[in-house]
């Protein structure tokens, strides 16, 4: 009863695979190991997974239709898909927009097409993002809020994935759930994200970029809480219904919007060093605040994030020191 995880060498995919393998499940992992950030970190994550006999890895680009079709033919008994492979990052979507349509739109379509033909598939879970809320200023963000005004192409492609999924649920009765993740952080995290950049620069004695002069709020969510939510969701596909297509959307966040400056202070304490700040204006594509309304996620999956940033950030710092010998 294998579970297919796309983006398995990525931050969230790696942690999810570790947990599923720890439960004795079989995991088929896919990733193209691209160099958007240091591929050595992706390889290091993979090496930990390949130690488990229940893990199989395939280096595949999910936008390559033939490769994905061959994979689906090899593993006809896949019962669950967790689709995490995407071109992530808000700011890079201003630099290389085609990477986003390729991985997030074309890649999502290729997977949906393969998934609808899998005879035993019970549930297809995919990663959406808080970025779909875009210019929405009502906080906290509720799943029913408007999502048709994204402020970045990244957000637009994530919204596209949601809309495409809805059509596949309607046309093919494919059970799908989209999870809107809110700023995930933790050990083995992403080098392009704020926490990682701040740690690296503080340790190097370089100034850290603080956008919107520090007037930012984020619902920072610890990786273990995210993974617990994904696993709970995977095991609970949408109930069959005669009136509704089997497609749902949920927020997965910490349900606690933290000021950026507090986030930085906790990092400074954990590192035992003061940061030098480079105060900058708001970046194009960014939003001032994110905050997840998780009532539905609590109700349907028992999702209960339990890691505040004063606990999670020191864990990230410990891992960073250990991994980079810093
Ligand atoms: N980390 C966050 O804060 C966050 C927030 C919101 C949404 N998300 C979404 O969650 C998912 C996982 O994010 P992450 O933080 O683990 O990112 P990540 O970049 O660490 O992982 C994504 C993985 O997908 C792989 N990949 C990218 N394009 C591919 C392609 N065309 N074919 C095969 N593999 C490909 C990459 O090599 C990478 O290993 C993504 O869909 C992302 O958009 C993440």
Give Rg in angstroms: 19 Å
CATH architecture classification: 3-Layer(aba) Sandwich
From N to C, what is the helix and strand string? EHEHEHEHEHEEHEEEHEEHEHH
Strand order of the largest sheet: 3-2-1-4-5-6-11
Give a count of the beta strands, DSSP E runs of length 2 or more: 13
Named CATH topology: Rossmann fold
Helix content: 40-55%
Provide the low-confidence segments as ranges.
Answer: none
C-alpha geometry: globular
Task: Look at the structure and name the CATH superfamily.
Answer: NAD(P)-binding Rossmann-like Domain
Quickly describe the structure.
The chain has 326 residues and is of the alpha/beta class. The chain has helices at residues 11-22, 39-50, 65-74, 97-115, 153-172, 194-204, 223-234, 260-271, 295-301, 309-324, and strands spanning 3-6, 27-31, 55-59, 80-83, 123-129, 176-181, 184-185, 208-210, 217-218, 221-222, 247-252, 258-259, 277-279.
Secondary-structure map:
Blueprint: E1 3-6, H1 11-22, E2 27-31, H2 39-50, E3 55-59, H3 65-74, E4 80-83, H4 97-115, E5 123-129, H5 153-172, E6 176-181, E7 184-185, H6 194-204, E8 208-210, E9 217-218, E10 221-222, H7 223-234, E11 247-252, E12 258-259, H8 260-271, E13 277-279, H9 295-301, H10 309-324
Parallel strand pairs: 1-2, 1-4, 2-3, 4-5, 5-6, 6-11, 7-10, 8-13
Antiparallel strand pairs: 9-12
The structure holds nicotinamide-adenine-dinucleotide (NAD).
Nicotinamide-adenine-dinucleotide is lined by residues 7, 9-13, 31-34, 42, 61-63, 84-88, 103, 107, 127, 129, 181, 183-184, 190.
Notes on the protein architecture:
The chain has 326 residues and is α/β, with parallel strands linked by helices. It has a single domain (3-187, 221-255, 294-306), classed as NAD(P)-binding Rossmann-like Domain (Rossmann fold, 3-Layer(aba) Sandwich). The protein contains 10 helices and 13 strands. The strands form 4 sheets. Strands 3-2-1-4-5-6-11 form a 7-stranded parallel beta sheet, with helices on both faces. Strands 7-10 form a two-stranded parallel sheet. A two-stranded parallel sheet has the order 8-13. Strand 5, helix 5 (153-172) and strand 6 form a beta-alpha-beta unit. Helix 1 crosses helix 7. The structure holds nicotinamide-adenine-dinucleotide. Nicotinamide-adenine-dinucleotide binds at residues 7, 9-13, 31-34, 42, 61-63, 84-88, 103, 107, 127, 129, 181, 183-184, 190.
């Amino acid at each position: 009863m294998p579970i297919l995880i796309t983006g398995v060498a990525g931050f969230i995919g790696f942690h999810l695979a570790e947990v599923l393998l720890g439960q004795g499940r079989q995991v088929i992992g896919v990733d193209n190991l691209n160099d958007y950030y240091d591929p050595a970190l992706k390889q290091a994550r993979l090496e930990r997974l390949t130690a488990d006999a229940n893990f199989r890895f395939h280096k595949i680009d999910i936008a390559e239709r033939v490769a994905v079709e061959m994979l689906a033919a090899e593993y006809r008994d896949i019962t669950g898909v967790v689709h995490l492979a995407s071109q992530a990052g808000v700011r890079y979507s201003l630099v290389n927009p085609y990477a986003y349509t390729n991985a997030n739109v074309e890649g999502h379509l290729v997977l949906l097409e393969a998934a609808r033909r899998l005879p035993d598939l019970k549930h297809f879970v995919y990663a959406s993002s808080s970025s779909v809320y875009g210019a929405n200023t009502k906080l906290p963000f509720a799943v029913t809020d408007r999502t048709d005004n994204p402020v970045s192409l990244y957000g637009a492609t994530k919204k596209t994935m949601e809309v495409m999924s809805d059509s596949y649920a309607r046309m093919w009765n494919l059970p799908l759930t989209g999870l809107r993740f809110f700023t995930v952080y933790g050990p083995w995290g992403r080098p392009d994200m704020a926490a990682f950049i701040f740690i690296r620069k503080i340790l190097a004695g370089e100034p850290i970029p603080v956008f919107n002069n520090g007037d930012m709020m984020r619902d920072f969510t610890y990786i273990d809480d995210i993974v617990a939510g994904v696993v709970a969701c995977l095991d609970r596909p949408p109930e069959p219904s005669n009136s509704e297509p089997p497609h749902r959307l949920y927020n997965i966040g910490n349900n606690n919007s933290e000021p950026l400056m507090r986030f930085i202070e906790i990092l400074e304490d954990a590192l035992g060093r003061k940061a030098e700040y480079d105060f900058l204006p708001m970046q194009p594509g960014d939003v001032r605040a994110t905050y997840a309304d998780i009532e539905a996620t609590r109700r349907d999956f028992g999702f209960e994030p339990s890691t505040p940033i004063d606990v999670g950030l020191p864990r990230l710092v410990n891992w960073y020191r250990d991994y980079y010998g810093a």
